[in-house]
Design goal:
With 196 residues, this protein is of the alpha/beta class. The chain has a single domain, classed as Pyruvate kinase, C-terminal domain (Pyruvate Kinase, Chain: A, domain 1), CATH 3.40.1380.20. It contains six helices and seven strands; from the N terminus they run βαβαβαβαααβββ. It has a seven-stranded mixed β-sheet with strand order 1-7-6-5-2-3-4, sandwiched between helices. α2 links the parallel β2 and β3. α1 crosses α2 and α5 crosses α6.
Length: 196
């Protein structure tokens, strides 16, 4: 029986304090597996900036996935505009997309006339509660990046997600389009918080 032994890193608590280590672990695993792309979630741009700085000179391609405009407040994009301009000048891809694991479903579950949960939100909640919030975020960002055409469905990527702010979860994912969600494979969990 063949097997591969690789380290998994566990953070004591979730959150922003783990960002630098999560990025470092992502780079290490990408290089180890000859993966070319790192997909990172970033709401304000802070994690995106840190990831970009860490990737300089590595030869790795960075793909940033942000919240959709209006996620927290109608008409507002939470990502810092100056950071976006600077990163785009550096050739970094920034995708602003609707959450693949909620989107329209959230409008239905929040509605006072319709109400109730949805199957899509049940999948999202299962990923959040059973493994880690950052895993749900990483999976969702890879779905959005695949739908955008920024990652291919036949290449592995390293994905970085987090809990509320910063980064605390790193995994290796074979992407899929949202419409083919069950073709997506989380192939490795590289780092995650032990406590949710």
């Amino acid at each position: 029986m063949a097997f591969v032994q690789k380290p998994i890193y566990y953070f004591d608590k979730p959150g922003e304090a783990n960002t630098s280590d999560a990025i470092r672990f992502a780079i290490l695993r990408a290089k180890e597996l000859s993966i070319k792309k790192i997909v990172v979630a970033s709401t304000s741009g802070s994690t995106a900036k840190k990831c970009h700085e860490a990737l300089i000179g590595t030869g790795l391609e960075l793909i940033i996935v942000t919240h959709a405009v209006g996620f927290s407040k109608p008409g507002v994009w939470e990502f810092d505009a100056k950071t976006a301009t600077k990163l785009r000048k550096e050739g970094i891809v920034i995708i602003t997309g609707t959450h693949a694991l909620s989107g329209l479903e959230r409008a239905l579950s929040r509605s006072t006339r319709i109400g109730g949960g949805s199957r899509t939100e049940a999948i999202a909640e299962a990923l959040r509660r059973v493994v880690a919030v950052g895993l749900k975020v990483a999976v969702e960002c890879v779905l959005i990046a695949a739908d955008n055409g920024s990652v291919a469905v036949d290449e592995e990527v390293v994905a970085i997600g987090g809990t509320m702010s910063g980064a605390d979860t790193v995994c290796v994912i074979r992407p899929a389009h949202t419409a083919n969600f069950f073709d997506l494979q989380v192939r490795e969990i590289v780092a995650m918080p032990r406590v949710r």
